[in-house]
Amino acid sequence: MSTTTKQPIKLAIAAMGGQGGGVLSSWLVALAESNQYYAQYTSVPGVAQRTGSTIYYIELFPEELSKQAAKEPVMALMPVEGDVDIVVAGELVEAGRAVMRGIVTPEQTTFIVSTHRLYSQVEKEVLGDGRVNSGLIIAGAREHAKNFIGFDMNQAAVDTGCMISAILFGSLAGSDQLPFERSQFEDIIRQGGKAIESNLAGFKIGYERARALLNEPSVASKDSSQESKFKFPKAKQRELQMLLAKVKSELPDQTHEFTVEGIKRLLDYQDLAYARDYVQLLIKLVKTDRAHDGGQYKFELTREVARYLALWMSYEDTIRVADLKIRKKRFTRYKDHVKARSDDVVHVIEFMHPRLEEVADTMPSWLGKLILGVTPLRKMVNYFCKERKIHTSKLSGFLLLYTTAKFRAIRRSTLRFKREHTRIDDWLTLVSNTTKIDYQSAVSIAQCQRLIKGYGDTHDRGWASYSSIVASLPNILKNDEPSKVITRLCDAALAEESGSQLSKEINTAVIA
Amino acid sequence: MAERSFVKEIGKLRLSDGDEFHGEGILAVTKALLQSGVSYVGGYQGAPVSHLMDVLADAHDVLEELDVHFESSASEATAAAMLAASINYPLRGAVTWKSTVGTNVASDALSNIASAGVKGGALIILGEDYGEGASIMQERTHAFAMKSQMWLIDPRPNLDTMTEMVEHGFRLSEASNTPVMYQMRIRACHMHGRFIAKDNRKGAFSRKEALDKPVGSGDAIILPPHTFRHEQEKINDRWPAAIEYIREAKLNELMPGARSDRVGIITLGGHYNGVIRALQGLGLSDSFGNSDVPLYVMNVSYPLVDDELENFCRDKDAVLMIEEGQPDFIEQNLHSILRKADINTKLYGKDVLIKAGEYTGAVLRDGIKAFVKKTQPELLAPPKKTVHEISIPVETIAKAIPERPPGLCTGCPERPFFTAMKLLQREVGPLQVSADIGCHSFATLAPFNLGNTIVGYGLGAASSSAFNLKHERRPISLMGDGGFWHNGLTSGIGNSVENQHDGITVVVDNGYSAATGGQWIPSSKAVANDRQYKIPIVDAVKGMGVTWVRRTQTYDIKQSLQALRDAMATDHVGPKVIVAEGECMLNKTRREKPLRVEKIKQGKRVVEQKFGIDDDVCTGDHSCIRLSGCPSLSIADNPDPLREDPVAKVEESCVGCGVCGEVAHAAVLCPSFFRADLVRNPGWFEKMRYTIGHAIIRFLQSGIEKKHARWVMED
Fold first, then answer.
1. B693 in contact with A, Cβ within 8 Å
2. Which residues of A252-264 are buried (b: 16+ CB within 10 A; e: fewer)?
């Protein structure tokens, strides 16, 4: 490390407003100034700091050299593309943005990156999955830097109970790119006077991880790429074990993972008989699959149906929601969420807004139909359909949900059950029939189940999207690659909620 | 003045002769004002000069000792008018605001003061909001200097020069009887650096002396024939006097070049550091600014000193003019100067640099390189070529990077109102929304996308004026409380009464001038020092003659939605005003958090609320996110092995504002939201009841567990 360079040390911090870039900058300024360096620091507050992306920029220059020259250094107020020594990014997309701005270069830049994600509004609001490809950004960031130090510093901060700034500051020290000793860094945290212990602990972690990553850049990140290794399980309960054995013998290996998950889910949702129904439907389908060369496609059809049939059969009704809300693990969840100790008093409040339709759905189908059909009855029930705050942690609230969950016993007779199972049967028939025309299209139709999710209006909208795709299926099948068209329509339905993109896509698909 | 404290900064204002000041540029300038014997200071807050006002507003003792009057002006026009005190009296005064927006507002007063001329030094500190991070349209303050014949200082961005130039600014103003504008770019305002301080100084003349012996002469009145005389004076007396002072005091700096006298660079002071860095990058300067090519640095960008420029250009083959933004006033002026002096030096400028946009480091480096290459290429070292194999080009990464514009903060009270507007749109159809300037401008972005135009601060209602017609979907205008008091009360509300406008105006009342840093305004609920605020906006609106007025609490989405529905449906003809109240969460937290911590310490009962999501109930549709946009409402991997789409998740940063629950209710969303109330220091009865209740709950839960345990599977 050369401290006698005639150029200032140039350091940029790419972060989001309010993410701690200001704290890190002030530490760096204090570090420099208490060790005979000039520090010039600038930022762009104002609107850019309200959770938008922003850049802090610092230049450091030794006072000694300035004295020799009898002149003060002239330092820049913004990072110059291709001329930054150290770039610190407090979040992965901001790291990518730094590369995009050209301030990270393989000739010069040590790149210190927290690889965690804070999702942007455009990624979050998509109806499906709108997240950007983190792997690509990490690989790109690594390639464009001279040295790359990247790990999930947010997790490290959460684990240590410190600010992320402390981890970043430690990583900076560990990167060995600044002409200051470790103890000089730590002194600055002590002088800051706030949360000294936790910040020093965070600093240590940042320092050590950075050192390790610098010395062994190749083992850098082994993030989340572990392949799930599925092992076929055994059950203690005899009848369940028989069902599992049936799956093993009658369904192809490729479908086992989803099928077993499906069975678990339906046991949790209803009972063993319901899980048997599920397996029975799959066994019926696999015949069609086999008859159409399914082996060649690794039985993708049965595998996908195994997944989506389980989801559809465990549709979210009032009974299911009540059931999930009263579980023990759910109580642990909300207590952990507020970091409560075991003896703390924590109340939980649910925000329920059952509509007339949901109430009728939970009734036996004859009663449900009656409620919906007879106006005075309808009005009476509707009177009770108000938004409710339910205190599940209080006995009265808990018992209300506990009783609702008990409706599981009559679920098979409810209006909703009848409706969903009619739809499921239609879907399976459609999938099965389509297999005869085009295997891949059948898979795509099976996957369209993904659209039908949520509650209330959301569920209605999803069903409408699904229905409109199904309605135009005969025309879609006239295309060259109908399965791709179906997938495209499915994506369009998930792109925005008004449905205009879907109808536009359907129109083009039909004409094509 | 606000919920923040500036004790540390005020300490820096007290530094005396020889002390070293370490801190921000804008604070250094504030200190320089006190060193210059200023008698009064005013201004209107806005990035990047808010800090000057915030600090002075808290610095009562310092101001009292120096007999300085400070006020937070109602608008930039008010601030500019304050300078009238310097017209007839030798009082030094300074005002500040964000430019060019503030200068637009102040122009009426500025033109008149510039015409009358000043006896006391009048300095206008302008935060030039241009380039990266700017929140306004991109224009130059330079035009105002030219049209009103005021002088414009654009100092080199280091604290020594910046503070010296403040003092020179006052002297220049007095020497030429002209108000002087002092321009700071956004990064210079927020630049941390150091300079050697001087003692603060009391003004030689006091405001009391002015009232003791008022001076009034027709000379300064803006009526003919004085205006015609002012015009002559500006050109024939004040202008030459200014040039004389600039030349004598050497405000513009001539820096020799070590390797060339054939080419030269003329730069505005504000760009100097960027130019030196660019020259360094090209191997044409060292870190101390010792350049290979001569430089003429204009710390005063208006007026130009013709003979200095002529001398610099004469005998050179070519010069480069570095002047950011459009129009290129100085380049044009320089052409005229050279032509008239019959100097044939070739002038480069926006032909080698970019025509419009910010002069970033790379733009300057590339521009200067192009200039040197054309004029004296032997100065440039041969380029070093290092080739790195890159398999993921920048363009590929760029495609993956989503935009991240600023947005409403976590827990912001304005968000639920915009949710209500979005829900209204679902009921009645798309709306014409005239937006305004303030935090609420962010409603124009995702997920709300509410707002068709923004034309100026406080002008939301005024910008709906043309849509005064009978329509089933009445136009909606938005206005913040800041803009309301700035001018919206008259320009918007008053105007709509006068013209019986049938639209709806929403005044978003968060209790502060929030977007500029949380300063207090007349309707703030706080009690500041000895001043009482709390003027209800509703009263002001009624006072203006509006009869249809509703108040809603923004966190109550249903109430807001109902108010909007009523405003749409009512038979009432004429303006309908909804005042949407909810205190800015950032400032509320600043005030309440320390109190809460204290209460917990004292053993008092405190409930801490946080929202959460049951990830097994959430189906990953993200409707909630599309109706909220809260930064703490995010997404996470779906824990369900059968599902792919990420589930919603409430981040650690949640402040428990309650909007998530409100949205779930009002929009009939999903039951996956919950609120967890952690009770600190519960009473014994509460604790007992909780313990007993939970014993029963746990018993029932273990029954459920037992049933499910039958179905356990093992690998």
1. yes
2. bebbbbbbbbbbb
Rounded to a whole number, what is the largest CA-CA distance in chain A?
Answer: 96
| Residues of B (358-417) whose Cβ lies below 8 Å from A | 360-362, 365, 386, 388, 390-392, 394, 396-398, 400-409
Orientation of helix B306-313 relative to helix B239-248, angle to 10°: 50
Q: How many domains does chain A have?
A: 4
pLDDT band at A225 (very low <50, low <70, confident <90, very high): very low
Cis peptide before B100 (omega within 30 of 0): yes
CATH assignment at residue B480? 3.40.50.970
In whole angstroms, what separates CA B176 from the centre of its chain? 32
Domain boundary among B587, B617, B645: B587
Query: Strand B318-322 to strand B263-268: parallel, antiparallel, or no bridges (unpaired)?
Result: parallel
Q: For the segment B589-636, what is each residue's pLDDT rounded down to a tens digit?
A: 888 889 999 999 999 999 999 999 999 999 998 999 999 889 999 999
Q: In terms of domains, do B43 and B177 share one?
A: yes
> Residue A174 above 90 pLDDT?
yes
- Residue-wise pLDDT tens digits, B389-410: 889 999 999 999 998 888 899 9
In whole angstroms, what is the distance from residue B28 CA to residue B34 CA?
Answer: 10
Query: Rg of chain A's alpha carbons, rounded to an integer?
Result: 30
Domains in chain B, number: 4
Residue B26: is its pLDDT beyond 90? yes
A102 Rama sector, left if φ>0, alpha if ψ -120 to 50, beta otherwise: left
Quick one: three-class SS letters along B15-35? CCCCCEEEEEHHHHHHHHHHH
What residues contact residue A403 under an 8 Å CB cut-off, 6+ apart?
none
Spatial distance between the Cα atoms of B475 and B348, rounded to a whole number of angstroms: 50
For helices A153-160 and A196-215, give the axis angle rounded to 10 degrees.
140
Question: Which tokens sit at B4?
Answer: 């923040």
Same domain for B169 and B28: yes
Of A44, A54, A125, the CB nearest to B447: A125
The pair phi, psi for residue B72, each rounded to 5°, is -90, 110
User: Residue B624: which domain range?
Assistant: 605-703
Q: Which two tokens stand for residue B604?
A: 């008092």
In a domain? residue B581:
yes
**A340/B678 CB distance under 8 A:** yes
B373 and B456 in a common domain:
no
What ipTM did this prediction achieve?
0.94
Q: Are residues A423 and A278 in the same domain?
A: no
- Give the SS3 label for residue A27: helix
Q: Which two tokens stand for residue B335?
A: 């052409």
Cis upstream peptide for B327 (omega within 30°) = yes
Per the listing, tokens 């400070």 go with: B70
Asked whether the beta carbons of residue B287 and residue A328 sit closer than 8 angstroms, the reply is no
- Domain span including residue A344: 318-412
The radius of gyration of chain B from alpha carbons, rounded to an integer in Å, stands at 30
H helix runs in B234-313, sequence order: 239-248, 272-281, 306-313
* Nearest chain B residue (CA) to A450: B643
Least confident of A204-218, B106-120, B221-235: A204-218
Is the separation of the CB atoms in A251 and A259 below 8 Å?
yes
Residue A2 falls inside a structural domain: no
Model confidence at A185: pLDDT above 70: yes
State which of A377, A412, A447 marks the end of a domain: A412
pLDDT band at A218 (very low <50, low <70, confident <90, very high): low
**Do residues B299 and B447 share a domain?**
no
Length of chain A: 512
Structure tokens at B401: 């990077």
Q: Is B185 helix (H, G, I), strand (E, B) or coil?
A: strand
**Per-residue pLDDT at A3:** 35
Q: How many CB pairs under 8 A join A and B?
A: 367
Of A42-51, A121-130, B235-244, the range with the highest mean pLDDT is B235-244
Question: Do A393 and B693 make contact, defined as CB atoms within 8 angstroms?
Answer: yes
